[in-house]
Task: structure prediction
Amino acid sequence: MFQPVAVFVGLRYSLAREHGFFVSFITWVSLLGVAVGVAILIVVLSVMNGLGNELRDRLLSTSAHATLSADGAPIADWQSDIAKLKGASGLIGAAPFLDTDAMLTHQPDMSGAIIRGIDPQLEPTVSNIADSMREGKLTDLQPGMNRMILGRMLAYQLEVGVGDTVTVLTPGVGGRGAVVPVLRQFQVVGIFEVGLQENDSVLALIDLGDAEELRGLAGPTGIRLKFNDVLKAPELARAAAMRLTPRLGVRDWTQENAAYFRAIRIEKSMMTLILMLIVAVAVFNIAAGLVMVVSDKRTDIAILRTLGLSPRGVIAVFVTQGVLIGWIGTAIGVAAGVAIALNVPWLEQALDLHIMDPDVYYIATIPSETRPGDVIGIALAALILTFVATIYPALQAAKTQPAEALRYE
Result:
């Protein structure tokens, strides 16, 4: 179909300067529209990828990649289970935990909280909480000492600091099965901040032994796991659980935070669809421009037909012209989009822009991750749309009858 002569003529039409002003204007607008649409898509998707990764890292800073549990029952021999898990494929660390819902009070303030009992020695192998300490350190938690580490927002709500005492209120069972409040005092020995409100405003850490005494259980209710590849964690966690007898239930990070990542996927898909309309508008302009070129070149088409150019050759001429505009626009858009996406933090600093105020948001700078698959997909979509836009004008050109076009020439 694409004969050399047809391609040559198509290139000459594309590069010729004798087009009318309006036709040339439409051509340049079409090329610019494709370039801008492709560039914006690449930048926006890169930023959304970066934000998704940032959110995932912050979510996993206090909750590990996977959790093994026995449906809420205590795991009495958890040390033996962790020893059996060692050597599992991709496993970096394993640590026990015991969560308790409670009310924390420090007169006159009160706030609901999740009190998590941890092993201070093993916890750093499954979470980044030790690196997120703002005051104190994780090893300050000692069994039998009734010590507690609070999230920064939770400490702010209770108006407490290191050295203050908070009262923990949990439900207990009294005479005749009645529910009675159980009060216990803990000393604040540290404050952490992971940069995620769901953790910083509700989570309190105590030693595992104190948590067992608080709940009246003889062991943790779960074991948290961390792997070297977070994306493979679900399958690796299930393989690791096979080492235990009896096997414990497995729940991975994709299940625990499914709502967050589902929202990100939907938002990313809708944003891609909306921004692709910019490219679609540019494609319509290409089609409109080619229709006007066909109308303007009817005499030239007729002469080419009388010289022996077949209808397929005529189609090839105008497809070449439209595809050339699309290729150039896509190439410019890919180059500009990748350049901007790879330098978003630098551009923020160079232009002195503060899109995300650090006083309001946990994320001070806009993260960006450019994925080759996204870039290739966007480029291919733009090229396919551009090619589709050339079909109708090219078919109209091929229908030109030489006798009618040259009748009054």
In short: The beta strands are 66-69, 91-106, 109-118, 133-135, 147-151, 165-173, 179-192, 203-207, 222-227, 249-252.
